[in-house]
Amino acid sequence: MRRSKVQILRISAAVFLFLAFAVSMAGAEGPYTMKTCWQPEHSTYILWNALEKGWDKEAGLKIDLVYFDSGMAQMEGLPAKQWVVGGTGSVPMLVGAMRYGAYLVAVANDDSTSNAVMVRPDSPIMKTKGANKDFPETYGTADSVRGKTVLMTTVSSGHYALSTWLKRLGLKDSDVVIKNMDQGQILAAYESGIGDIAVLWAPSMFIGQSKGWKVANKDSQKGANIVNVIVADKKFADENPEKVAKFLKVYMRGIDLMKAENVKLADGFSKFLKDWAGVEMSSADAVLDIKEHTVYGMQDQLKFFDSSKGASEVETWMSGMANFFVEQGKFTREEMDKTLKSGFVNDKFLKLAAEMK
Predict the structure, then answer these.
(1) Which of 45, 80, 8 is nearest to 281 (CA)?
(2) Computed from CA positions of residues 167, 172, 178, 181, in that sequence, does the dihedral angle turn out positive or negative?
(3) Do the beta carbons of residue 163 and residue 328 sit within 8 Å?
(4) CA separation for the pair 327, 173 (Å, rounded)
């Protein structure tokens, strides 16, 4: 049966409307929601600031910030699929790489001077400085520290800082009494008189300083690089390399903003900590926090990850962390060597991000 021209036009119009509806529905799906893991600190503010400006939406993402109080809590959330990308310390990063094959895909910031071994101003530890001549600004002696009770978040960058300090004084972890707490608990307990030493990282260390507590490990971390890193779930990253690269592109925009504005962002940093984490920190302390953290743009990051002439700088830093784990008896040399050779330090996504417009 032949159709009239009117019927043909009606059918064509119906097809056109259907296709237009399908296209609009596809567009209505919106950006890809990405769950990311963070702690209340400087590296998180870098991303939070980017999200406030809508840069994730521009990249086709909707980045959600999932709160954790420690790096190990983040790693425990990985097999439960609570997140796919995020920021963590380099010590829990190694645990994630060993247990779950997680990738280290970028450097969030340099945290070397923001992990503090803190004591009260009247502590006998503060009576001696430079007992180890190679570290003239480090306080304490083997005798003044041995047997003291330390409040600390274990298996963390702070733990690495404590162990490094003890090593400079000729001691080991077993020479002190370690009580495992999260950062908020440490602040409350130490203020109430519990413990002899408190190990805090930024921003908690600046809150401690505002209470008059002193930093004992002024220069003991020389040569012990401590960085916060960007971690990615291996399965997700392997299956979605472009999504990980887009995330890194957003994060690098946040880093560029931090480099350009620096301490001008202090008020925003304080507001972020209060609104997102319930942490009260003055703008003055926020200035100190920002000054203590060095951030690196894309070109510097690519250099850090460059392994064309041997082990990259990032791989060398992580080897130092691995030695810490082995010395503490947390893992065997064989386990750590296997992890270091696994290729978990992965610059594939960073290079892909660098190529994106």
Answers:
(1) 45
(2) positive
(3) yes
(4) 10
**CA atoms of 353 and 43, how far apart (whole Å):** 19
Q: What is the pLDDT of residue 215?
A: 97
**Average pLDDT for 40-46:** 97
Do 217 and 125 touch, CB atoms closer than 8 A?
Answer: no
The label of the residue with tokens 């900590």 reads: 273
Top-confidence residue, 328 or 25: 328
> What order do you get walking across the sheet with 227-232 strand by strand?
61-67, 32-38, 85-89, 227-232, 103-110
CA–CA distance, 107 with 131 (Å, rounded to integer) = 33
Residue of 26 and 218 predicted with greater confidence:
218
Separation of alpha carbons 176 and 191, rounded Å? 20
Determine contact, residues 194/63, Cβ cutoff 8 Å: no
SS3 61: strand
User: What six digits make up the tokens of 170?
Assistant: 């000729």
d(CA 262, CA 255): 10
Q: Which two tokens stand for residue 344?
A: 């978990």
Q: Crossing angle for the helix pair 333-340 and 313-327, nearest 10 degrees? A: 170
Given this model, what pLDDT does residue 327 score?
Answer: 80
Examine the pLDDT at 7 and tell me if it is beyond 60.
Answer: no
Least Cα distance to 254 among 140, 112, 117, 353 occurs for 353
pLDDT digits (tens, 9 = 90+) for 120-154: 999 999 999 999 999 999 999 999 999 999 999 99
Distance from the Cα of residue 345 to its chain's centroid: 15
Phi, psi of 38 (to 5 degrees): -150, 160
Q: Please determine, for residue 88, whether its predicted confidence score (pLDDT) is greater than 80.
A: yes
Does a cis peptide bond (omega within 30 degrees of 0) precede residue 136?
Answer: no
- Sheet strands (E) in the chain: 32-38, 61-67, 85-89, 103-110, 115-119, 149-152, 177-180, 197-201, 214-215, 227-232
Put simply, whether the predicted model's pTM sits higher than 0.90 gets the answer: no
Give the DSSP per-residue string, 151-163: EE-SSSHHHHHHH
Q: What angle do CA 120, 123, 127 make, to 5 degrees?
A: 125
Report d(CA 10, CA 14) in Å as an integer. 6
